[in-house]
Amino acid sequence: MHIQDIFASHPTTFSFEFMPPKTDEDFDKLYRSISELESLYPSFVSVTYGAGGSTRERTHDLVVRIKETTTLDPVPHLTCVCHSEEEIDHILSRYAEHGISNIMALGGDPPRSMPDHDRSSDAFHHADDLVRFIRRFNERGLHPDKRGFGIGIAGFPEGHPGTPNRMKEMDYLKAKVDAGADYIVTQLFFDNRDFYDFRDRCGLAGITVPIIAGIMPVTSEEGLNRMAELALGARFPAGLQRSIRRAAGDKEYVRKVGIQWTTEQCRQLLENRVRGIHLYTLNRSRATRDIYANLGVKDSRGLVI
To answer: Is residue 17 flagged as an active site residue?
Structure first.
């Protein structure tokens, strides 16, 4: 379903994100999680993408498998890094042939195996370049939906790590929207005040597309430390840190504390009319199912705002 139709039929969207696994065994585990989450009827699910060939084929295979064997609506990520126009055109053609309706267009980072990759050789230097290219693909009428692909982009409530100038950062986000993006999914954050301020600044910049809040459940101290390493610039509120410290290393208690924090984040966002919530699942279903239960939501169709 095209993202415009998803927003039209869901006053508030609930969506999940998966990562293509590296092994066949992990693939089977992921698919069990996907099957468990299918019963929650998310508005859509997204699948991340590795640059430089690291998970390109696995992303495509997973997206197509989800499309053909489940009731879920998959949204594949696509990045600028390590791509020519011909490669992107080929990927879009393959997705169009399988009836994939939407794409997340991202800047991306070079894979760790290619630390010296020269970005000047890439056809697309910024996400707005990729958005424009997808729009041009849509105009060629190669997609079964006459509108072509719906296009999502990333937003950064706490600031993009590569753009210290927060005024310029909003200019760059507006450029992606003006290039043809249909909606924004944010990077993870743990303090809703950062999201509300980001949403207000988007309004001041004339950005009117739907903004979906990206939420990462905390389920372990190790996971929190990994987030600190990977999500550069992310802020971890003192209240969250204090709660986890009180757990004194009790893994199950840490998990409960983290789920409670995430539940309250989601509850407050819903009360403040968030357009959608996007849960980063880390390929597991338990945390997402627990959050739904805590919110009193049987599935996304029964979500009452």
So the answer is: yes
